[in-house]
Every structure is written in C-alpha cells, then in structure tokens.
Design goal:
The structure holds two protein chains of two kinds.
Chain A: E1 2-7, E2 17-23, E3 30-31, E4 36-41, E5 46-50, E6 55-60, E7 67-69, E8 73-79, H1 86-99, H2 101-106, H3 119-132, H4 140-143, H5 149-158, H6 176-184, H7 209-224, E9 227-235, H8 237-248, H9 259-273, E10 279-282, E11 287-290, E12 296-302, E13 305-307, E14 310-311, H10 319-335, E15 348-352, E16 371-384, E17 389-402, H11 408-423, H12 426-429
Parallel strand pairs in A: 12-15, 15-16
Antiparallel strand pairs in A: 1-8, 2-4, 2-7, 3-6, 4-5, 6-8, 9-17, 10-11, 12-13, 12-14, 16-17
Helix pairs in contact in A: 9-10, 9-11
Chain B: E1 2-11, H1 15-26, E2 31-35, H2 41-46, H3 48-68, H4 85-109, E3 113-116, E4 118-123, E5 126-131, E6 134-145, E7 149-151, E8 163-164, H5 166-169, E9 178-182, H6 186-198, E10 201-205, H7 217-229, E11 233-235, E12 238-244, E13 249-254, E14 257-262, E15 265-268, E16 272-274, E17 288-289, E18 292-293, E19 306-308, H8 319-333, E20 347-349, E21 354-359, H9 362-367, E22 372-378, H10 383-387, E23 394-400, E24 406-413, H11 420-428, H12 433-437, H13 448-458
Parallel strand pairs in B: 1-2, 1-6, 2-3, 6-19, 8-15, 9-10, 9-15, 10-11
Antiparallel strand pairs in B: 4-5, 5-6, 7-16, 12-13, 13-14, 17-18, 20-21, 21-24, 22-23, 23-24
The chains are: A alpha+beta, B alpha/beta.
C-alpha cells in the first residue's frame, strides 16, 4: 500500500506559484486516474490538476485561497488498496472551523449567511453553520412538524414549510384549517416584523482566485504608476455611418461590427506614428520595451470578474479579422475557456463599458503597460456647426498614461490623432 | 445493438422498483423496467411471501401434532399427522407464481415496458442490458437503482451443499433432521421456528448476548420462552467456525469453548448486503454510505437524474420502505413536489409470537432526552387472546410526558402483525394517548390491548 504525492505542477512559463481556488476532493475521497483534484489559478488562467493515479486522498496540502509554490506537495494519495483515512478526515473540518471564529461570534442570530459569493467562498461558512448547530440526530424526529400525512402533502405541494405554521390542535398538531389560514395570510412567517428594521449582520467573503488577482493588479498599478488621465470628445457620426453601411452590406460569414474594431484599427495607425504608448515599462532596471507588434488587451467583464483577453498582432489584422478575434476571445473569456496565452502579453489596453460607459472614467493602466484607452458612452448631442446646432453622435475617450514615461504633451498628441482618425474614418483605411 | 430511449428507467423489479414503475406509468411517464430474474424481487420470490407461506404451513402442522400427542387443551385429537414438504413447497410456489404474474400484469396495465436481462451502466444516462436476444441499450432521462440486497456469506462457511441461505431454506424438498441456524436475527428465528415446528431439531447460534439483539429484552422474552418450548437450542455469544460435511457437524466457539453441533443443514442468516456489483456502478461513481448508495430525502444519489431506493440504500431493509420510496420517486420524476416525510416505518418480526415495532422504543426516546410515559398491557388480561391460546405478550405505548404525543408503539404476541397498521396510523396522524384511549376498539379483539395500553399510560387502565 503505497503513497503518492502530487506536487504543484509547473503550470506555465515563468510561473513560480499559483493560488488554490477550489478543491474537488477531500481527505478520504476515492479518486480515479484523470479525475480533477483541484483548480489553481496562475497569472490569469485557471488550471485544473488531474490525478495521475487511482487511490484514496490522504491529505490536502493547502486551503482554498492559499498560494502554493511550484513543486510544493499538494495532495497525498494512498494507492493500491483502500486507505485508512479517518484521521486526516477528522483534522480537516476542525481546522476549518478555527478559521472562522469571528463569524460565529459576531453574527449569532441569523447564522452568518454569505450574501452571494462565488461557490468556492461559500463552502466554508456553510459547513460551519451546519455543524455549529451541534447535537441534532436523536431529537431530529421531534423537530418535524406535527401534522397528518394529508396536511403534510398539501403543505409540500403549496411550498409551505410546516415548521413555520402554528398548530392549534392537541399537542400543537397542525390541522387543515391551520394550513389554510397560513396560506391565506400569504405564507408569511407568523412573527414577521413590520416596518423598517435595523440589520446587524456582517458577511465575511474571502477574496480568492480571480478577485484577488484583480485586487493585487489594481493595487500594483495605482501604487507604482503615476497616472495622467486625458479626456477628449470625439464626433463619431462618420464612423457610425460607415459602420451602419458595412453592417448592412456584410457577407453572411462576417460578424456584426461594433465600434471597437474601428478603434483598434485607429489605434494601430496612431501607434505607428506614436510608438511610445505601445510599450512595457520594466521599472526595476528602468527599461522600456517598445513593441513593434500591437497586442491589444480588451478589458472584459466575466461572471467571475474582470479579465483581459488579448487580440494579438492587431497591426496585421483587417477590420473584419479584428471583429472575429474579438468575438472569439470575449466568448472564451466569459465561458472561462481562454488559455493562459490568450490572457497575457498585451502591450496596450482598451476598456469599454458600452452603454454603461458614462461620460468620463479614470481607467487604471494594465501594469506594466503604459497606456489604456477608455471608451465612454456614445450619445447624440447638439453641436454648433458655425450657423446652427446639428445633432451629432458624440463619444468621449478617457485615456490614462504612465506619466513617468509619457509626457502630457505626447499623451495629448496621441489622443488628438486618434480623434482625427475616428472623425474622418477614411484615414484609417487609406494606404499609409 | 438495439437502442431505445425513455423518460424513466427502473433497474430491478422488486417491491421498490415495480411500485416506482407502476406509479410512473400511472402518471403517464414513458417507463422501462429491467429485471434479471423474476418480477417481485426478494420479497415476493425468496423472502416475505414464501417465508410466510412456509411459516403458516409449519404452524398448522405443529397444531396437528400437538393434537395428536393428546396435549390439545381444546379437546381435539387425531392420529399420526404427516407433512409432505414437497407438496407444501409446491403450494408455496403456486402462490409465488400467482403474485409474479400479478406484478407482471400490473406493470403491463400501467404501460411499463419490461426488459428481462442484466443491466450495466455505461454512463449516467445510458444502461446496457444483456438480454437473451442480445445487447439492448437504453437511454433514460432519469434512472432508479432498485437492485436490492443479497444474503451475506460467511467466509468460513460459503453457501453450497449443506450450507444454505434463506433462499434455499424455502425450497427444501424434505424436512432436515437437524438444522443449525447461524444468526439469531429475525430471518433466522422465523425460519428456525418454522423448521422446529416441521420436526427438525433446530439449534440457533447468535454471536451477541441474546437473540434479536436489535429489540429490547421485554419484547424478546416471549420468543425465547417459546423457542424453549419448541425444543430449539439457543447458543448466544457463539461464533460458528467450520462445517464437517462427512460427519454433518458444525464446529463453533461458545464463550471461548469449542462445541460441536449436529446439523444436516446449516442456515446462514447473518445479514444482507446491497447488490451493487456487476452493475457498472464504477462508471458513475456514486457516493456511498458504507456499502450502501447514499441518498437524500428525495432518494437522489450524488449524480443528477439517478435515484436509488430500497435495500441498496441501507437500513431498514424492508419491502414497505422500498415501496414508499418507489412511489415517491415516481412522483418526483413526474414533477410533483415530494420529499421523505414519513414519521415511522413499522417493522414486523414473524416469529412465534410476532413482534411489531413502530416509532421510538422507550430507550430510544430516553436517549433523545425526552421525558416519557409508558403504558403496557398484557394479553393475559385480554379475553380474545385467552380464547385463541394467545396469552403471551403485550402492547406497549411510549408517549411524551408533557403533551402525551405518541412516540412509539411496540407489541409482542400472536397475530399482532395485523395491529401494525393502527400503530403506524396513530404515529403518522400525530395521535395523543387520549386519542387512542378515546377510540372505541371492538370487543372481543386483541386490539383492545392497544386502547388499554394508552389508558394504562394515562393511569387508568380498566382491565388490569
């Protein structure tokens, strides 16, 4: 009966550690070869760790949220024969319970309900709640409501929890009449307090996984990079007319265009003239890596949080190609199937909230890049053309730059050039 | 390979499975049931029904023998009664056959498609059935595992030859001169008693300190007394070791001392285990509780769309529990809101005399920290029991001391199995002692003892 130690695998180039975001097994669980044991998160991609062997889980090397070094032991599995798993199994819940003494003390009445954290985070408090209630098995039978089978069936079908119904019969037996009255009252709990109530509960939500990555990235960026943000108004009427025409005449296999592919192409043109904004600033040794390729990160909201899939080599892509790649990556990011390569390596980033774009934003640079372009909401506004007000489609661009390496003047020139290209979109497409 | 698909697939046509399928059929669900042997499962083919037939025949024969010996207090007499066990078994097989046909007919009437063969999971939605005419693949939206249980074998005394399980005991062609029963639980005692009445010399070996260790000693005393009257030898704290077929003797260890027991047949009734092998369950890897499939209060397993009911899900391994689960699961699959909300699962032990339990025993109630009142009424004080020579035993009722809610009812005595319905009804309906005391129980019947036990708990029994 041997023991097999699974170490934290090397999950990606240059990755020295990864965060454990989910256990799929617990000590004592049988595992089969290729069964997923855990999920770890590196830079931005989540990687599942499969079991190379069949056996029984003896020991888990980390808690959800822990950061584990590559090659550190992750799981111990007993192989060939069924394991004696009682001892480690007993250790685990006890350790977990100790993690959360605060929750138990501070919120005694409404047993700490996690509001709506992701599944992983919910696990710990839920386990505690169930066990904190303590001795329940022998008396369980008596906690059941006292009611005849017919009353129980009606309650079940009406979705009524009979434990909330007050029985008026002998020994508190719930009669059909009691149930009728309860349902007639709208199945409200009998003692539901009226009016506005103070709430004192505090939900503790552990910041793990992608959320923690985002938090770290944001702190790093705002603490290291002195941001300069520059906002300019862009008349998008011409682009919008062009876009409408191109969408109307597109071939069946071509995707519907949004503003973003135009912005991406305009960005590529502007960067050709202003290469300083398409760069990675390694502030340790003090080297700016000015990239000739334009890899545009697209800040994307996913169910788990913000991710930035990367459209690689935008300089080599036409507008339709940009649109296709954008759609593919956005989908991959939302469904969590984007690979690590697709989520890293950008040289400049676009942040767009579409209809939620607002008037002005202060985008945070995707460290260690030096520029980010924020797209605000497009709206029809009256514009004085010299003789009258005319309705124009106006949109702001809010862009931030690393002021250590990009001067305000250069930033302004960059944005003004973008504005010119977008206001006269033919310029985007003419031969350079 | 032929392929069919359905909404619900039931694996196993025992009392759990066939009820699930019939109810599903009634609800208009496209249902298929797979059975590897005969409809009715353990209960109908080799369990409840055939054993009751044999027990009844043995009781009848025993009464005749008592009369022939001139010991009948009723003044009956006759000469030389005999039994042709082969005919008894044929009669029993006739009953089983009628019921087999009945279940098959009910399934057909409900529109259920029956497939005969051995099922094997391919994945959580697909099952292959090996039938006589080849492999049949069935795809189902929901699957109910109702594969039941099988007798546990002792490693040192494997089944075969003289070593038999309850299944073989119910099909013996002649009465063995001597029979050793290993395991003094209800199955061993029911069959051991029957064979003692048929004329076998029966020895019961029980590893624990007393027979029927799961019942309290008040309930088991009348059975122990009766076993003595029937000449059944009971060895408690005894472990069977080996069997010598040539000499027909069973070696055992009784309190650390080696003993030899003459036994033409050795009946092993040391428990039952769930049937989970050969099913391809490893393909779907369901969570277990011990060896049993783990289920929740809707009989759902750890895999979505797969349910398990009956013995394969654990104790109590009783046909009526499986039936209630089967009915519930069919209704859940039909989209009804259901969950397991039964207050008690009555259990009957068809020993001589019989034992019925429903709800909490006095010890269980006390262990739950409840203050209780107990009322016990003996059949000695019941007129009907006297007239049928059935004065052994009593009815006992357990209620909460504060509000007199009935928590449990137990009885031991002749024919008390038929009282089980009123016991479980009282508990399901949430009766108080006053409800039972205030219900007129017909005179003269043994059921009066039930009313009297409630009166006794209230402190004013009338006939004692």
């Amino acid at each position: 009966m041997g023991e097999f130690v699974i170490k934290m695998p090397d999950v990606g180039e240059g990755v020295a550690e990864a965060e454990l975001v989910e256990w799929h097994v617990k000590p004592g669980d049988p595992v089969r070869e290729d069964m997923v044991l855990a999920a770890v998160m590196t830079d931005k991609a989540t990687v599942e760790i499969p079991s190379p062997v069949t056996g029984t889980v003896l020991w888990l090397g980390a808690e959800v949220g822990d950061t584990i070094a590559v090659k550190a032991p992750l799981v111990r599995i007993e192989i060939a024969g069924e394991g004696e798993a009682a001892a480690p199994a007993a250790d685990k819940p006890a350790a977990k319970a100790e993690d959360k003494p605060v929750a138990a003390v501070e919120a005694p009445a409404p047993v700490a309900k996690p509001a709506q954290p992701a599944k992983v985070e919910a696990k710990v408090p839920v386990v505690n709640g169930a066990h904190a209630n303590g001795v329940h098995q022998p008396g369980e039978r008596l906690e059941k409501a006292l009611a005849s089978p017919a009353v129980r069936l009606r309650a079940k079908e009406s979705g009524v929890d009979l434990r909330q119904v007050t029985g008026t019969g002998p020994a508190g037996r719930i009669t059909h009449d009691d149930l009728d009255q309860f349902i007639a009252r709208g199945a409200q709990p009998v003692l539901a307090p009226a009016g506005l109530q103070r709430k004192t509960a505090v939900d503790e939500i552990k910041v793990t996984g992608l959320r923690r990555r985002i938090a770290e990235k944001m702190s790093l960026s705002t603490s290291r990079i002195p941001h300069i943000t520059y906002v300019e108004e862009v008349d998008m009427t011409a682009v919008e007319e062009l876009r409408a025409t191109m969408n109307r005449d597109r071939k069946p296999d071509q995707p519907k265009l949004t503003i973003l592919p135009y912005l991406m192409r305009a960005l590529v043109r502007t960067i050709a003239e202003q290469p300083a904004v398409n760069a990675i600033f390694d502030d340790g040794p003090g080297i700016i890596h000015r990239h000739h390729a334009v890899h545009i990160g697209i800040a994307t909201q996913t169910p788990a949080g913000l991710t930035v899939p990367v459209v690689r080599h935008a300089e080599a892509r036409g507008i339709w190609d940009c649109a296709n790649e954008l759609n593919r990556l956005a989908e991959a990011a939302r469904t969590g199937t984007a690979t690590r390569d697709e989520l890293t390596g950008s040289t400049i980033t676009i942040s767009s909230l579409g209809a939620l774009g607002g008037i002005v934003s202060t985008p945070v640079i995707n460290h260690p890049e030096v520029a980010i372009v924020g797209v605000n909401k497009l709206a029809i506004r009256p514009v004085w053309d010299g003789t009258q007000f005319v309705p124009r489609k106006i949109m702001n661009l809010s862009s931030s730059f690393d002021h250590r390496v990009v001067d305000g003047w250069d930033a302004a020139v960059f944005v003004q050039r973008l504005k010119t290209l977008l206001e006269t979109p033919a310029l985007i497409f003419v031969e350079a | 390979m032929k392929e069919i698909s359905c909404k619900l697939l039931v694996i196993g046509a025992g009392p759990g499975g066939y009820i699930a399928a019939i109810r599903a059929g009634q609800l208009g669900i496209d249902t298929v049931i797979v059975e590897k042997a005969k409809a009715g499962g353990t209960c109908l083919n080799v369990g409840c029904i055939p054993s009751k037939a044999v027990i009844h025949a043995a009781e009848e024969f025993h009464k005749l023998r008592a009369a022939a010996s001139g010991r009948s207090p009723l003044g009956l007499s006759l000469a030389n009664p005999t039994i042709d066990l082969a005919r008894t078994i044929a009669w029993k097989d006739g009953i089983v056959g009628r019921l087999n046909g009945g279940v098959t007919g009910l399934l057909k009437k409900a529109g259920v498609k029956a497939v005969i063969g051995t099922a094997r999971f391919v994945d959580g939605k697909t099952v292959d059935v090996e039938t006589e005419i080849g492999l049949q693949r069935i795809r189902a939206e929901a699957i109910v595992i109702a594969t039941g249980s099988a007798p546990v074998e002792l490693p040192d005394l494997p089944f075969g030859g003289a070593i038999i399980s309850s299944t073989e005991a119910l099909s013996l062609k002649s009465v063995p001169k001597s029979l050793a029963v290993i395991g003094g639980g209800y199955i061993g005692l029911e069959l051991g008693t029957a064979f003692a009445k048929l004329g076998s010399h029966v020895t019961v070996l029980e590893a624990q300190a007393r027979i029927l260790p799961l019942y309290d000693s008040d309930l088991t005393k009348p059975i122990a007394k009766r076993l003595g009257e029937l000449g059944v030898e009971v060895f408690t704290q005894t472990v069977a070791k080996s069997y010598a077929a040539d000499t027909g003797s069973l070696q055992a260890e009784h309190n650390g001392r080696a003993i030899d027991i003459a036994a033409e047949k050795v009946l092993v009734t040391v428990g039952r285990k769930p049937v989970t092998e050969g099913l391809g369950l490893e393909e779907i890897d369901l969570d277990r509780t011990g060896r049993f499939i783990r289920i929740d209060d809707q009989c759902r397993t750890s895999m979505r769309g797969i349910y398990a009911i009956g013995d394969v899900t654990g104790e109590p391994m009783l046909a009526h529990r499986a039936m209630a689960q089967g009915e519930m699961v069919a209704e859940i699959v039909a989209g009804h809101k259901r969950s397991w909300d039964k207050r008690c699962i009555p259990a009957v032990c068809f020993t001589d005399p019989e034992i019925v339990t429903a709800g909490l025993s006095p010890d269980e109630a006390r262990a739950s920290g409840i203050e209780i009142k107990i009322g016990q009424f003996p059949f000695q004080a019941n007129g009907r029991a006297m007239t049928t020579l059935a004065e052994d035993g009593f009815v006992r009722i357990v209620a909460r001391a504060d509000n007199h809610l009935v928590l449990g009812i137990q009885a031991v005595g002749h024919g008390v199995s038929e009282l089980s319905a009123s016991f479980s009804l009282a508990i399901e309906m949430g009766a108080r002692l006053e409800d039972i005391a205030g219900t007129i129980h017909a005179h003269p019947t043994q059921s009066e003892a039930f009313q009297e036990s409630a009166l006794k708990a209230l402190g004013h029994a009338l006939h004692i």
